[in-house]
Specification:
It is built from seven helices and six strands; from the N terminus they run H-H-H-H-E-E-E-E-H-E-E-H-H. With 168 residues, the protein is α+β, with helices and mostly antiparallel strands. Strand 1 and strand 2 form a beta hairpin. It is globular, with a radius of gyration of 18 Å.
């Protein structure tokens, strides 16, 4: 009876905020990878701050998106990569500087998914690199709302495909 009563009692905002912060700290602490940290440290300063902001956005999006679970941060092809190894809910998201353009960075997605074509339909104002990336300029503000949605779609790609298959 006590556990039922406790679950019905709404937590105070300060308690909710403290628990949210603790979850974020656990997620961030669990995800720190020395090899990835070294890659971030090697970026030029303006790009480094943009890529770190993008990294925070990815972790925050994962934390607030149902079904994603904890992310694993790793290096794939020398790029910071974010994988849903615990839940297998999504497709890998990678971030890196665009090698051919000093002022650009990108969010990369698996090219054999329909993710980028979906993003193009939803957000035609963004810049894309073929069927594999969203291109960003270090001089521009981060299109946060659009990127959060795109990252959430990528991190739940397999989960959504499974749900779609069951619905048929």
């Amino acid at each position: 009876m006590k556990s039922t009563l406790r679950s019905r009692v709404k937590k105070a905002p300060a308690t909710q905020e403290r628990e949210k912060k603790q979850r974020t700290e656990r997620l961030t602490a669990a995800s720190l990878n020395p090899a990835v940290t070294a890659v971030f440290d090697a970026y030029p300063k303006p790009l480094k701050s943009r890529l770190l902001a993008l990294r925070r956005l990815i972790f925050d999006t994962a934390r607030t998106t149902e079904g994603v679970g904890a992310l694993e941060e790793a290096l794939k092809w020398g790029q910071a990569s974010y994988l849903t190894t615990q839940t297998k809910s999504g497709s890998t998201v990678r971030i890196d500087q665009v090698k051919s353009a000093a002022n650009q960075y990108a969010v990369y997605f698996h090219c054999q998914t329909d993710l980028v074509s979906t993003f193009r339909e939803l957000y035609p104002e963004l810049n894309y690199g073929g069927n594999r990336s969203i291109l960003l300029d270090a001089a521009d503000a981060l299109p946060e709302a659009a990127l959060r949605h795109c990252v959430a779609l990528a991190l739940t790609y397999h989960l959504n495909k499974r749900k779609g298959a069951r619905g048929r």
